[in-house]
Design a protein that fits this description.
Length: about 675
């Protein structure tokens, strides 16, 4: 290790007066050439108080939640709804990628160089990767730190480097494996070629393995958001599951001709290796054991019901308990299910929390002023339709569901009707809705804002009727902010939050966005077992834990029942291929709208091309009653091909580093 490391100050980022960032503008200057103005990096580590800020800065590489540059709105769960912003294409930029609106000369979301088509700042992930290396090299010189803290912080930096490389790998496929070098190294050492995908995965896993022993078992309450042993083991399991998945494991149909010119070999592994699933399963089991030792488990709401729900809770406790379990699983801050979360400290209009909260209806009461919230991010029709029936199966498998009746307008039971008891606090009494909104699984009612249901916000329970001028619907007073699909989303904001308006922030209830939670590991376990052994009772048991929390019957029970499932769907759980589809659907519903989960799942399963070419459908948001509102419309065309599964390396970077090979199709 060099005693003095010289870095450029071409771009300096300051956090509380402490300079950390290298300010590199491309992967090519992984170690930057020294200019006239330099500083000595080791001066940033003269005390613990400065070093802790340097540590915090390493976490800046996690992509921001702001909807203009957020990756979580990839996929077909979300749709933007503010027509003016959508027209100018400066907002919801991941949504633009879903419409194939980028090119290698104008990348929309660029984590390779940090550039952006619309001028918004992106994160160049090579910067925090190099910052992690420099942090590891320098932290030992801090005089007023214990060896234990130095070891932990150094291990955090190693893990974060691995995590950022995994993010780049998911986005671009084969990436560059950094090599230790010096500022005066020749260009051949600075401008490196891309490595094979298999080598990238192995490097990332090895780096996580190197980090785990030095991490704390569990981050302390004043260190929430910092990675620890439990979180690192969980992310390692995710990396290995991704490596075992068909997009990366034997993907000859996509990438047989994607060749590394340095040796003539393909960048992607073209030969399927079943043993990768066993390696993933072992890591998943280790992570679950670590969770159990540290008291991490599926979340259950343990508080009292809100006052607005108290009467219905007393009459319908079991069902409302499930609704609360699901409604609060994300926004109950640092609950027992969150293994690792991202602390953004932001509740502005441009986040999922603020953007998905509907405008507070006029004269709704409560402490929040009318008009708070925004309501410009919402659920798609397809995301809603994927939720299961109350029997715990997809609608097409349910014997009691007739597809031709799905959009029939019905009136919900009156409050005095005996059949309404099980619907109290979930469905409004005596209102018009459609048949497909009835008898659905609790996740639909807890996560979405549907016509005829309720949403909990502004310290109120609001009866939602998403018609023009009604609660949650299009209204001229909202300035173009409306549910363009007619289906809102309440999963991502807290029931006590007011939302935001302009620069006024009231009743903020912030919470971390889960990067990985216990339910993820359980469904990963079911998937890995099925891929390696086929369907087994152990796989069912892992899946059933998540289903039980969602108020659904065991998978092997319901699919063995000829009074519930159609004859052609009987015993789907016993076949590896059809059980695989059930696991995928379970993941889609459990992780809908979360931090990029469904998008990356569909990529790794090789389902993205078929799924993301479908147009986005929604109800007629300008309808004023059930008969005019419940009419499906094509609200956005989508274009998605194999090319889009890997994003382009910017042409500017290709011009800088002649050793790079562009991704296929770009």
């Amino acid at each position: 290790m060099c005693n003095k490391i010289i870095i450029t100050t071409r771009k300096v980022m300051v956090l509380l007066g402490v300079i950390l960032s290298l300010g590199l503008t491309s992967c090519g200057d992984y170690l930057d050439i020294v200019p006239d103005n330099v500083l000595q990096y080791e001066d940033l580590f003269i005390s613990r108080s400065q070093a802790v800020r340097a540590l915090a800065k390493l976490y800046d590489g996690i992509p921001p939640e702001q909807t203009d540059v957020a990756p979580y709105i990839y996929g077909d769960d979300w749709i933007c709804g503010w027509s003016e912003m959508d027209m100018h294409r400066t907002w919801c930029q991941a949504n633009q990628i879903m419409r194939s609106m980028q090119s290698k000369s104008n990348p929309i979301m660029d984590y390779w160089t940090g550039t952006n088509t619309y001028g918004n700042q992106q994160m160049n992930l090579w910067v925090p990767i190099r910052d992690c290396d420099l942090f590891v090299e320098q932290i030992d010189q801090v005089p007023d730190m214990t060896l234990e803290d130095k070891t932990d912080w150094k291990s955090q930096a190693k893990f974060l480097k691995a995590y950022y490389m995994f993010m780049l790998l998911q986005t671009y496929g084969p990436i560059i494996i950094p090599k230790t070098t010096t500022p005066d190294a020749p260009a051949a050492e600075l401008y490196l070629p891309r490595s094979k995908v298999e080598d990238c995965f192995n490097y990332i896993v090895a780096l996580i393995d190197e980090a785990i022993p030095g991490l704390k078992e569990r981050a302390a309450s004043n260190e929430l958001g910092q990675i620890d042993k439990v979180g690192a083991k969980a992310i390692k399991a995710r990396v290995l599951l991704t490596q075992a998945s068909p997009f990366y494991n034997g993907n000859e149909s996509y990438y047989a001709n994607f060749i590394d010119p340095t040796d003539g070999e393909p960048f992607f592994s073209l030969t399927y290796d079943k043993e990768k699933w066993k390696r993933a399963l072992d890591a998943i089991n280790e992570a679950l054991e670590s969770c159990e030792r540290n008291g991490l488990q599926l979340y259950r709401y343990k508080g009292r019901p809100y006052a607005f729900d108290y009467e219905d809770w007393m009459a319908n406790e079991a069902n409302l308990q499930t609704i609360y379990d699901l409604r609060m699983q994300i926004c109950d801050t640092w609950n027992e299910e969150i293994i690792w979360g991202w602390v953004d400290g932001n509740y502005t209009l441009s986040t999922a929390k603020g953007c998905s909260m509907p405008k507070k209806p006029l004269n709704a009461g409560g402490p929040a002023p009318d008009g708070f919230g925004r309501g410009v991010m919402m659920a798609t029709y397809s995301a809603m339709a994927r939720y299961f029936t109350n029997n715990g199966v997809p609608s097409e498998d349910d014997l009691n569901v007739k597809s031709y009746e799905a959009n029939d307008i019905i009136t919900t039971p009156n409050e005095s009707d005996p059949e309404y008891t099980a619907l109290r606090g979930i469905i409004q009494p005596g209102v018009e809705t459609i048949r497909m909104y009835m008898n659905r699984e609790p996740r639909l009612y807890a996560h979405l804002i549907i016509t005829g249901g309720y949403y909990r916000a502004y310290q109120l329970r609001v009866p939602s009727l998403n018609y023009w001028g009604a609660n949650g619907g299009f209204d001229d007073r909202t300035g173009g902010q409306y549910f363009s699909s007619g289906i809102g989303l309440q999963k991502m904001f807290h029931p006590e939050a007011y939302g935001t308006y302009g620069t006024t922030y009231s009743a903020e209830v912030d919470f971390p966005l889960p990067i990985i939670r216990v339910a993820d590991l359980l469904l990963m376990k079911a998937e890995a077992i099925n891929e390696y052994f086929g369907p087994t009772p152990e796989a069912y048991e892992a899946m059933n834990q998540v289903r039980a929390r969602a108020g659904l019957p065991n998978i092997e029970v319901v699919y063995s029942d000829p009074t519930i499932v159609r004859p052609e769907a009987l015993n789907k759980h016993e076949n590896q291929d059809t059980f695989r589809d059930l696991i995928h659907l379970e993941r889609n519903n459990e992780f809908a709208f979360e931090f990029g989960g469904n998008f990356w799942d569909n990529i790794r399963w090789k389902k993205a091309v078929a799924r993301y070419t479908a147009p986005v459908w929604g109800w007629n948001y300008s309808g004023t009653d059930a008969s005019t509102f419940f009419n499906l419309q094509n609200i956005e065309a989508r274009i998605w091909t194999i090319t889009n599964c890997l994003q382009p390396i910017p042409i500017t970077e290709m011009n800088i580093n002649s050793n790079l090979v562009q991704n296929p199709g770009w």
